[in-house]
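Before a colleague's protein record goes any further, I have to sign it off. Thanks in advance; the entry in question is below:
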Amino acid sequence: MKQIAILVPETAVIEAVADPRYMFTAVNEFLKSAEKEPMFNVQLVGLTSEVRLVDGLISIHADATLKDARRPDLVIIPAISGPLDRALKLNREFLPWIVDQYKDGAEVASLCIGAFLLAETGLLNGKSCSTHWLFANEFRNRYPEIELVDNRIVTEQSGIYSSGGANSYWNLLLYLVEKYTNREMAILASKYFVLDIERNSQSPFSIFKGQKIHNDPDIVKVQEYIEANYQDKITVDELCDRFGIARRTFERRFKKATNNTVLEYWQRVKIEAAKRQLEMSRKTIGEVMYEVGYNDTKAFRDIFKKVTSMSPVDYRNKYNKEALN
């Protein structure tokens, strides 16, 4: 049975504590209904046995404190709220405990801006991470040694997971359910919670969904055009002509809205499409490369590795079950 420790930080976002608990306990019920043994033992772990949130209006009673919590297989760090300096200071006692659990073999997942608390442990140094897009600049300023990929919904590296902003943590929870149980349970959970499983399961290492939560509707149209035509050769001048925006203004607005240059955005969309092909089909690397619009093998391999930290061959071998048969 997998031991899941969901931390209850001071100033935690209540939903980011309750929803993971709901997910894993619901999967236990699904398993029991199928006459199978439950898979998860979930504990809420706090610095104290009672954590008062929302200015003291709501209390969460932890199942355990750090000193008596069961050894976890997975530690979940929920989102925190309020001024970050205050929230991080209030929760510093969690940091050595999280590090000790990771060194002892546990995996660690942060939800939304829980990534700031995870980053404080030092475990993310030299690794990639997601967090809420609204806090991207602050995260980069605080932790320059971490590669923030704020336009991804989910990242995974060396047993450390993170999710993007707000409700995107449900996609990470679905991925963890599939990893620890099976695809069938993940599909059942996605239907029960009315979630789009395709946003997670097709890209288990990372999921790129272009950042469209911004106030520039013209750039949203450009993003949608790139995503619909990523196989074609697209130039900035062509986009400027199509959407009637001067080049200098266009490049500035696109970068501001998406935190990517046009080329970077186009490449990320192409690589995400390649990853889906590598995960779900028996196509060769060359076939996938041509289908997503690359003709240069070295360029494709280099860009793929830059985005995923893996070569196309390694990615396919790790994530495509059919490729292993």
